[in-house]
């Protein structure tokens, strides 16, 4: 069976991803209050991944040159740049945040923080800095709190003028 070509509704998906990002931050805050530091780190990371997806989907046309071709998903083929924007593979987050940094300053820094929280979530604290760059739970809590404040501020500004982040070149 041949895969049929399809385009994603990037506007609708972007809106969903922004809502998801904000809700994930809410859950991260609840987990922090409950003392579930590792889970809070994971939710903060998921929030950022959803937000990066929002930014990439709002600016999908800017990714078209870098991510050429198509991606087969089941029996459907979609443009590769749309798939990247919708899914945000973890191994592409740094690269994508560098692209988005030109449009939204601060994205690369928050992506680096999110990736550190992701590492902490899976490996726990590590005083030696081998498995995780976060040495203890107290540092993790401080980073998660800082990340939530910064991410929420950026999301708030961009959600109020969501059309203004879309640039044409």
Word description of this protein:
It holds the Pfam family PaREP1. This is PaREP1 family protein. It comes from Vulcanisaeta distributa (strain DSM 14429 / JCM 11212 / NBRC 100878 / IC-017). By secondary structure, the protein is mainly α. It has one domain (4-163): Up-down Bundle (Four Helix Bundle (Hemerythrin (Met), subunit A)), CATH 1.20.120. Helix content is 64%, strand content 6%. The protein is built from 7 helices and 3 strands. The chain has helices at 10-33, 37-58, 60-63, 80-87, 93-101, 107-123, 137-160, and strands spanning 4-5, 70-73, 76-79. Strands 1-3-2 form a 3-stranded mixed β-sheet. Helix 1 (10-33) packs antiparallel against helix 7, helix 2 crosses helix 5 and helix 2 runs antiparallel to helix 6 (107-123). The longest helix is centred in the N-terminal third of the chain and has 24 residues, at 10-33. The protein is globular and about 50 Å long. It starts with a strand and ends in a 9-residue tail after the last helix. The model has no long low-confidence stretch (mean pLDDT 93).
